[in-house]
């Protein structure tokens, strides 16, 4: 039953991304970002960005 309430809404992947550290949906236009292995990652805060950049690839 809980799955009914936990369904994710469709996201516009052109305009939004999911922060790989905390899972928050962020707008690409205003989010902090970092590149690794040719892929861009987007972050909700400096804390998430720092956590990501301090982890090995």
From TrEMBL:
Chain ranges of the TRASH domain: 19-56
The scientific name of the source species is Nostoc paludosum FACHB-159
Looking up Pfam families in the UniProt record yields: YHS
Q: Indicate the transmembrane segments per the record.
A: none
Q: Which SMART domains match?
A: TRASH
Q: What is this protein called?
A: YHS domain-containing protein
């Amino acid at each position: 039953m809980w799955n009914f309430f936990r369904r994710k809404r469709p996201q516009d992947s052109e305009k939004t991304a999911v922060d790989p550290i905390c899972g928050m949906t962020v707008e690409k236009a205003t989010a902090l970002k970092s590149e690794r292995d040719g892929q861009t990652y987007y972050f909700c805060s400096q804390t998430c960005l720092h956590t990501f950049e301090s982890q090995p690839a």
